[in-house]
Specification:
By secondary structure, the chain is mainly α. The protein has nine helices and no strands. Helix 1 runs antiparallel to helix 2. It binds fe (iii) ion (FE) (3 copies) and zinc ion. One fe (iii) ion binds next to helix 2, helix 6 and helix 7.
């Protein structure tokens, strides 16, 4: 490995790592979407898969700019490029770990409602890793005066924030509420007669009062978390 002795090389290293992270997510997101039951969650994960493919292409563009117009594989020579994996020069071990954790979570015995909540949590951990990494990379590009690179990275950063926000909205607005009680028994009997969504009136009222508290609490929590993430980046 070449010695990393300046910020530009560290930026390249970070971008190679991100390229690997996005590549791993492109494999993982369809599995998570398939395992999800909530239609909006399925759509959110599939939608972010498309965005993720674009992000990987955008990273390719950024790496090309940093390599003075040459694609990283061209620099290494023909034979080296033949044997390099599709991930590139780095393997992101953090994303590998996050995905492994998601996969073992998805093997657990859960009701569909609770599984959806768990899938959102796993997806948000991956998004937060990306937010942190793109925030750092953007700050490096800014420091190096690479305006076009910083702008491209910021586009992706905004998309990652949007994905994270929509998952939070889905969790606190619907999925966490559905997961709050082990209602699989009650629901199964109601589903036979009604359209499938509602519990008995008495249970629904009881659920409502506890649910609104939960929503307020978790909404507050995620707001705090997000501020922390944003602060961390702006201080860089
Ligand atoms: Fe991404
Ligand atoms: Zn390394
Ligand atoms: Fe990494
Ligand atoms: Fe993402």
């Amino acid at each position: 490995m070449e010695k990393i002795n300046d910020l530009r090389k560290l930026l390249k290293h970070e971008l190679d790592d991100l390229y690997s992270a996005e590549t791993q997510l492109i494999d993982a997101l369809p599995k998570m979407a398939e395992k999800a039951s909530n239609k909006q969650l399925k759509a959110a994960l599939s939608g972010h898969l498309k965005v993720t493919r674009t992000q990987r292409e955008r990273l390719g563009k950024v790496r090309k700019i940093l390599s003075d117009g040459k694609a990283p594989a061209e620099q290494k020579g023909f034979f080296a490029s033949l044997f390099s994996s599709k991930e590139g020069d780095e393997h992101c071990k953090a994303m590998e770990g996050l995905i492994k954790e998601a996969e073992s979570l998805m093997k657990e015995d859960m009701t569909p409602e609770v599984m959806d909540a768990a899938i959102i949590a796993a997806a948000q951990k991956a998004e937060h890793y990306e937010i942190s990494s793109y925030g750092t990379a953007k700050a490096y590009a800014h420091q190096l005066g690479l305006k076009d690179v910083a702008q491209l990275l910021n586009t992706t950063l905004d998309e990652e924030y949007a994905a994270d926000d929509s998952l939070t909205a889905l969790a606190v607005g619907k999925v966490n509420i559905d997961a709050e009680n082990d209602s699989s028994e009650a629901k199964r009997t109601v589903r036979g007669t009604e359209s499938g969504q509602t519990k008995t009136t008495a249970k629904k009222t009881a659920a409502k009062s506890t649910t609104s508290k939960t929503v307020a609490k978790s909404a507050g929590k995620s707001a705090v978390k997000k501020t922390a993430v944003k602060k961390k980046q702006s201080s860089r």
